[in-house]
Amino acid sequence: MMSMSSPPPSPLRVTLTVSTVANAFIKFRRARHDALDFASGLPITHPALCGEDATCRRRVPLEHADRYVCKGAVDVTKLLRGSRASLLEKAVLIGANVLVEESWVCQIRIPKNRQDGKFRVQIRYCASASRSSLPDPQKPVAMDKVTNVPGLMTIVGREEIAN
Q: What is the Cα–Cα distance from 111 to 115, expressed in whole angstroms?
């Protein structure tokens, strides 16, 4: 014979604790961030380095990621140039002097309050290190795919992200 027990608690009653309310606010706040995502596409080599025997056949794949905090605006061209320069420094340390087969991905997190908010920008730059008798172009590839946030950019912080 089945014994009758008390009915389950009402689903309309929820015990609220400080931690559950705080977690709800954090999730709600996190979900409202807007972001701009764009990328260079497939790996590209600068036209100056595309010729026959322009670079050594041996190539070492490298990757560099940075997280920038910018105030006022975002000039992606300048940020890409900084990340690419850091990647080229890594290439020089292993004996290379040019970057080929380059690609990048960029994400800009838009602050809720644009007037005094800070943009968080994450850039991941990939390329292969090689040797060449020609100089490195010192410019990121696929600059036509860049989307800037207009205004005067101030870089508040830069942090290298470990791979």
A: 9
